[in-house]
Automatic annotation (TrEMBL):
This is DUF72 domain-containing protein. It holds the Pfam family DUF72. It comes from the Bacteria.
Amino acid sequence: MNQTTQRKRQGRLRIGTSGYQYRHWQGRFYPEALTQDEWFGHYAERFDTVELNNTFYSLPQAGTFDKWKEAAPAGFEYALKFSRYGSHMKRLKDPEQSLGTFLEAARRLGECLGPILVQLPPNWKARPERLDTFLAEAPKQYRWAVELRDPDWLNDEVYEVLRRHGAALCLHDMLEQHPRVMTADWTYLRFHGKRYAGSYSSQYLVAEATRIAELLHDGRDVYAYFNNDQKAHAPRNALDLRRYVQDRQ
């Protein structure tokens, strides 16, 4: 009798930066000769994902999403930050309204639409019941990650809400000693630097790469974005981290 050993699925890694249209990257990441219209093509040759921040501040017109979709090479994914109207102004109230407006535009990306990051405001104490109601309204065909900026939210009751809805706890370094809790079968990492500046050391990135390689081995998809855009540290750190992970696979 033949026994077939099923191999665990290897998780997929996507590493990119938080935003890509930074003028101070020209001459550092983007060659001087490139026009601004050519920046995305240069970026997409090196990365297979980007986190878009402008969807947080104001929702672009539908045509902008169509242009993003058209520009993306095969297999490229956009991670979107959910609108601050829903997260910071409404504070997750009336989710059917804010979600409906946001997703009407976001779904125009089709297969290019990756995770949606809901960033909650600092100095707002935990309201797990409101998060529960919000995530219950969030369509499950999309991947949802939640970034908690107030440490009061970092508790087992909130983690259970995230697990119940299959939403990932965003692991980030804006809060000291942020717990590395997995609440979904995938995870979302954000590297903010020191107030969006400074470069991560090789030692730090190697340690992160070791953790990421373990997650991938366990079958978890990993999305990681660098937000230390000053002096173009973000794309350099992202490329280094990817190389370190590949060395461990």
